[in-house]
Design goal:
BirA Bifunctional Protein, domain 2; alpha+beta; 23 strands; Rossmann fold; Herpes Virus-1; binds glycyl-adenosine-5'-phosphate
Length: 455
C-alpha cells in the first residue's frame, strides 16, 4: 500500500529525520534540513554507495572536486547553452509553468522532449490546455529559462567575476579525468565516483525532497575504450539493480525501467535508461544510466586545448575514452527508501508505526533499555560496551511498550532489555523490530548475536 506523503512528512519531522529549512523564519520554499536521525541515514546511504561503487569495485577510484568551477567548464559541457527549461506564463493570473509539463500532465502518455517551442505552443492552443490555476487559455510565448545558479567570485560584481554553482558533479570528474588516470596509473576501463552537492534553479521544485534546488548526487563516470566489445551499459545497469534490490532493499515491484526515446535524450547522451520509482505522488525518475560517448572529453579537449586522449599500451592507439554514467540523487533515493519503509500495522493491543529501514541504514542498530530504574546502571554499562561496536542508543523514559514503539518509529532493528533476571541469569531480552519476537540471549554472546543479525 502506498504511504500518504503528508503522513510521511509529518512522521519524519516529529522523529527528527527531516525538518523544513529555515523553519523559524517561515521556511524557504522547497528547502529541507536533515535532522539528527536523517543525517545518520543520509551518511549511511552515501557510505553504502561509496563502498559499492568506489571502494569495492575492481575498476573504480574516487574524487572530491569543487562546487564552483571555471565557467569555461560549463561552456564546454553545454550547460550554459542547453541547460534550460521552456517557461510559459498565464496572461490572466500571471502564474508561470513549464510548458512541456503542462502538456505531459494533461496527456500522460505524451513526451514532448524533442519538440520545438513553436510546436509546444501550437499543441497547447489546439488542444485547449488551460491554465491549471485559473482555467484561462491565454498564454505568453515560451521563453527559455536557465537552470544554472549564478553568483560572483570576489568583491567585484561584473561579467568577469561571474561563476556558477555546479548543476551536476559529473563535470568535476571529466576535468580531473587525466590527472586521476595518470596519478593512479589507471588503465582503461576504469571509473571515477563522486558524491557531492549540486544546484539547479528548478522551475517546478516540489514533492517534498524529490525535486529541490540544492541536492546531492552520487555519480560514477566509467571510462572505456571505444573498441571495447564489453557491454558496459548492461554491466552498470545490473550493478545499479543489484544495489537497489540487495543493499537499499527496494522491492522490484516498486520500480521499473524506462528507455529514453531518441528525441528525449539529453544533449550529451547516446542512450539513457531511467529507473523509475512508484512515489506516492506518481512514478518518477530515481536513477539515470546514460551513455555519454566521448561527448564530454571531446568538448573539454576542444575548449581547454589540452590533450585528453588515452594512449592504449596494448595497441599503441590514441583515442578519447567513452563513458557510461550511473547517476542518482541522494535525497531521491532516500525518499524512495523512506516511502517503502514507512508501515502502519494493526496489532492486538493497538497500532504501531514502524520504519522498516534496511538494517544498515537505520540511525541506530540497537537500543539498550533498563526494564526499571533498578537496572539502569547495569543497562548503561552494557550500552557503553555496545557503543564500541554498534550505533547504539540508550532509552529509559516511559514504559517498555512505549519505548519499543519509539524505537519502531525510527527503525531501530533490535531492542535489548536488561530486566530483573539479568543479574542472576546473565541474559538480556532481545526484541526484533519486524517480527516483534523476543529472545533471551546471554550477555557474553550478545555482540556475536547482533553482528550476525546486522550483516
Ligand atoms: N550527470 C547526469 C545528471 O545530472 P540528471 O538526470 O539530471 O543527470 C541525475 O540527474 C539524478 O540526480 C536524477 O536521477 C535524480 O535522482 C537526481 N536529481 C536531479 N535533479 C534533482 C533535483 N532537482 N532534486 C533532487 N534530485 C535531483
Amino acid at each position: 500500500m502506498k504511504v500518504e506523503i503528508e503522513k510521511l512528512i509529518s512522521h519524519l519531522k516529529s522523529q527528527g529525520f527531516v525538518f523544513q529549512g529555515s523553519e523559524i523564519y517561515g521556511g524557504l520554499a522547497n528547502s529541507w534540513d536533515y535532522g539528527p536521525l536523517g543525517a545518520e541515514v543520509k551518511n549511511k546511504l552515501k557510505k553504502l554507495w561509496w563502498d559499492f561503487f568506489v571502494r569495492r569495485n575492481e575498476y573504480n577510484i574516487g574524487l572530491d572536486s569543487s562546487i564552483i568551477l571555471n565557467p569555461k567548464v560549463w561552456q564546454a559541457s553545454g550547460h550554459l547553452g542547453n541547460f534550460n527549461d521552456p517557461l510559459i506564463d498565464c496572461k490572466k493570473c500571471k502564474s508561470r509553468f513549464r510548458a512541456d509539463k503542462l502538456v505531459e500532465e494533461k496527456f500522460a502518455d505524451m513526451n514532448v522532449g524533442g519538440w520545438s517551442n513553436e510546436e509546444i505552443e501550437k499543441f497547447i492552443k489546439e488542444n485547449a490546455i488551460n491554465c491549471p490555476k485559473c482555467d484561462a487559455n491565454d498564454f505568453t510565448n515560451i521563453r527559455q529559462f536557465t537552470l544554472m545558479f549564478k553568483t560572483n567570485q570576489g568583491v567585484v560584481e561584473d561579467e568577469a567575476s561571474t561563476v556558477y554553482l555546479r548543476p551536476e558533479t559529473a563535470q568535476g570528474i571529466f576535468v580531473q579525468y587525466k590527472n586521476s588516470q595518470r596519478a593512479l596509473r589507471k588503465k582503461l576501463p576504469f571509473g571515477i565516483g563522486q558524491i557531492g552537492k549540486s544546484f539547479r534553479n528548478e522551475i517546478t521544485p516540489g514533492n517534498f525532497i524529490f525535486r529541490t534546488r540544492e541536492f546531492e548526487q552520487m555519480e560514477l563516470e566509467f571510462f572505456f575504450s571505444p573498441n571495447d566489445s564489453n557491454d558496459w551499459f548492461e554491466y552498470w545497469l545490473d550493478k545499479v539493480k543489484f544495489f537497489l534490490e540487495k543493499i537499499a532493499l527496494i522491492d522490484t515491484k516498486n520500480y521499473s525501467i524506462r528507455e529514453h526515446e531518441a528525441d528525449e535524450l539529453a544533449h550529451y547522451a547516446k542512450r539513457t535508461v531511467d529507473i523509475e520509482f512508484e512515489f506516492p505522488f506518481g512514478r518518477g525518475e530515481l536513477w539515470g544510466i546514460a551513455h555519454r560517448s566521448d561527448f564530454d572529453l571531446t568538448q573539454h579537449q576542444n575548449h581547454s586545448g589540452q590533450d585528453l586522449t588515452y594512449l592504449d599500451p596494448e595497441t599503441n592507439e590514441k583515442y578519447l575514452a567513452h563513458v557510461i554514467e550511473p547517476s542518482v540523487g541522494v535525497e531521491r533515493l532516500l525518499l524512495a527508501i523512506f516511502c517503502q519503509s514507512y508501515v502502519e500495522e494493526q496489532l492486538d493491543n493497538g497500532e504501531r508505526v514502524v520504519m522498516k529501514l534496511p538494517y544498515k541504514l537505520a540511525p541506530y542498530s540497537v537500543a539498550v533499555m533498563p526494564l526499571q530504574k533498578q537496572q539502569k546502571e547495569k543497562a548503561n554499562e552494557l550500552y557503553k560496551e555496545l557503543l564500541l561496536d554498534f550505533d547504539a542508543t540508550f532509552d529509559e523514559t516511559g514504559n517498555i511498550g512505549k519505548r519499543y514503539r519509539r524505537q519502531d518509529a525510527i527503525g531501530t532493528p533490535f531492542c535489548v532489555t536488561v530486566d530483573f533476571d539479568t543479574e542472576s541469569d546473565r541474559c538480556v531480552t532481545v526484541r526484533n523490530r519486524d517480527t516483534m519476537d523476543q529472545e533471551r540471549i546471554e550477555i557474553s554472546k550478545l555482540r556475536e548475536y547482533l553482528l550476525t543479525k546486522l550483516i
